[in-house]
């Protein structure tokens, strides 16, 4: 087993060697611009892009023409939300989203709020899921879009998108889902799930960074968007800019592999996830899973280790790459807003670790990580005045802290 | 974030971890920070009744690596000092010794606060005894 062990597959994933192999000819050899219509360099590139478009579409049950290639999911989210808000401004100005969305959705909505849109921020329950009745109640005749993620990037919970899609369809409101973490990990089908817009990213599914796509429904209903990038009118006018041909080829291959292997891989990753959780829970007291266990991505586990601050835990386990909801590991010095939305107190949010298990992790690695985490949590609890007080029976919530 | 070797050494091999008897009249206890903020430091010192010199210092810290290292270093510095000398330890000394990055300066402030709180506790115990 090689160290460091990579267990941060929600942040990004390594490129699958099969993906890399598919991409390589498109850098120096078949380097054409897919928009060059009058020579073989352009034709080769265009053919490769067309093939990739089919592969991406097939993963989510879409038609090729419904795939718009972008630079990644942040761009896809922005294009979907701002593009709909501008295009449908005459019909309404109300958008519904949820407090645990990725920043790309939250901040796009905040910007629209400044421009005069009304945004409803749905809360989530302790399990991280929105309440469908609350969604229903929030829809008005001014609502143009509902944007709810398929799977959460921090806690891995799966929102009930099929039910959300059905509600939106019934009420004649467009439904966008940020499917970045879900695509390639759990089955998605734009018809069965009633998706009108969906954001996906290559690098979360063993493809390269810098390429993603937005699914834009063409029929029943036909979704229109105002382009956010002006230029040569690529991607049916919705996203100008020379196509990233090698990236797109890699993205297509990654989708193809995911479509073939998803079912089997999901079972394997869920077993590794459950193994890790079982080992941690058997060896340590006061550890808590954040978010629903039932509605969850196969490779995702977010746990709080009470009385041990997250960054110190990351430092202690050194050669294991994971991430934490602790303030000390974030750019803003605030603990995770996602955990906060679940009702996890700041004290426990500081102690959370996100484990992201992926295609290339082995059982041996999971056992090693469990062993390291247990040893470091024990060591840091010996150092923790909070653990000592809790063991003495002090109610930490009643202590008058001097900070 | 990359940390200095000294900081990593204090984090990986913390000095003077533990607790002293709170009720001992020669022991001063300082506890600063709050769980919601992600940092709680407990620092204790034991003063030799006849010489006035700090003969033992212990800590327990809930917090990031820099907070743990800062309190470990503080206990090392406290030992052998008089109570008055203890109060001359400044957070900037800790910042320099551990090469704390700017976002971690609050850890050193907390360590200084913990020293002051421990000394204040010790002094108030002594005043009570003298009354």
What does this structure look like?
The complex is a heterodimer of chains A (403) and B (131). Chain A folds into 2 domains: 5-10 and 262-391, Aspartate Aminotransferase, domain 1, CATH 3.90.1150.10; 17-258, Type I PLP-dependent aspartate aminotransferase-like (Major domain) (Aspartate Aminotransferase, domain 2, 3-Layer(aba) Sandwich), CATH 3.40.640. Helices cover 40% and strands 13% of the residues of chain A. Chain A is built from 13 helices and 13 strands. Chain A has a 7-stranded mixed β-sheet, sandwiched between helices. Chain A has a 4-stranded antiparallel β-sheet with strand order 9-10-13-12, covered by helices on one side. In chain A, helix 5 (103-114) links the parallel strand 3 and strand 4 (118-122). In chain A, helix 4 packs parallel to helix 5 and helix 8 (245-283) crosses helix 12 (363-383). Chain A starts with a strand and ends in a 12-residue tail after the last helix. Chain B is of the alpha+beta class and 131 residues long. Helix content of chain B is 46%, strand content 20%. The chains are: A alpha/beta (403), B alpha+beta (131). Chain A binds chain B through residues 307-309, 311-312, 315-316, 326-328, 333, 335, 345-347, 350, 382-388, 396, 401-403, and chain B through 3, 11, 14, 17, 19, 31-42, 60-65, 67-68, 103, 117.
């Amino acid at each position: 087993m090689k160290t460091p062990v990579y267990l941060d597959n929600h942040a990004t994933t390594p490129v699958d060697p099969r993906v890399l192999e598919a991409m390589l000819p498109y850098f120096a050899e078949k380097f054409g611009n897919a928009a060059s219509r009058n020579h073989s360099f352009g034709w080769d590139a265009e053919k490769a892009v067309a093939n990739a478009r089919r592969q991406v579409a097939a993963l989510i049950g879409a038609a090729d023409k419904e795939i718009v290639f972008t630079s990644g999911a942040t761009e896809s989210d922005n294009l979907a939300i701002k593009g709909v808000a501008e295009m449908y401004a005459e019909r309404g100005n109300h958008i519904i989203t949820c407090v645990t969305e990725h920043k790309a959705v939250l901040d796009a909505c905040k910007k629209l709020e400044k421009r005069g849109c009304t945004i409803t921020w749905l809360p989530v329950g302790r399990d991280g899921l929105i309440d469908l009745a609350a969604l229903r109640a929030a829809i008005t005749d001014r609502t143009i879009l509902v944007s709810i993620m398929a799977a959460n990037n921090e806690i891995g919970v799966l929102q009930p998108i099929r039910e959300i899609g059905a509600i939106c369809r019934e009420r004649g409101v467009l439904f966008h889902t940020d499917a970045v973490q879900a695509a390639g990990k759990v089955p998605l089908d734009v018809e069965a799930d009633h998706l009108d817009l969906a954001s996906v990213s290559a690098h979360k599914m063993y493809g390269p960074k810098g390429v993603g796509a937005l699914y834009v429904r063409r029929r029943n209903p036909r979704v229109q968007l105002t382009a956010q990038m002006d230029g040569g009118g690529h991607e049916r006018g919705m996203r100008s800019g020379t196509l990233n041909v090698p990236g797109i080829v890699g993205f297509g291959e990654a989708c193809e592999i995911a479509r073939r292997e998803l079912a089997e891989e999901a079972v394997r990753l869920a077993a590794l996830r459950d193994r890790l959780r079982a080992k941690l829970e058997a060896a340590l007291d006061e550890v808590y899973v954040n978010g629903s266990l039932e509605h969850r991505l196969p490779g995702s586990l977010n746990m709080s280790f009470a009385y041990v601050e997250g960054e110190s835990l990351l430092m202690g386990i050194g050669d294991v790459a994971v991430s934490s909801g602790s303030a000390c590991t974030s750019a803003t010095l605030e603990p995770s807003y996602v955990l906060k939305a679940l009702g996890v107190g700041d004290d426990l949010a500081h102690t959370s670790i996100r484990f992201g298990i992926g295609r290339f992790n082995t059982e041996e690695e999971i056992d090693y990580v469990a062993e390291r985490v247990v040893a470091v949590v024990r060591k840091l609890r010996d150092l923790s005045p909070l653990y000592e007080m809790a063991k003495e029976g002090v109610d930490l919530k009643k202590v008058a802290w001097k900070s | 974030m990359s940390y200095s070797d000294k900081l990593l050494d204090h984090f990986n091999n913390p000095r003077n971890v533990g607790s002293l008897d709170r009720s001992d009249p020669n022991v001063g206890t300082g506890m600063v920070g709050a769980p919601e903020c992600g940092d709680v430091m407990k620092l204790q010192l034991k003063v030799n009744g006849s010489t006035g010199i700090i003969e033992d210092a212990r800590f327990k810290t809930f917090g990031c690596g820099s907070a743990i290292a800062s309190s470990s270093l503080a206990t090392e510095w406290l030992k052998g000092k008089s109570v008055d000398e203890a109060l001359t330890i400044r957070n900037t000394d800790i910042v320099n010794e551990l090469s704390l990055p700017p976002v971690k300066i609050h850890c050193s402030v907390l360590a200084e606060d913990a020293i002051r709180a421990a000394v204040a506790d010790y002094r108030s115990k002594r005043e009570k005894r003298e009354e």
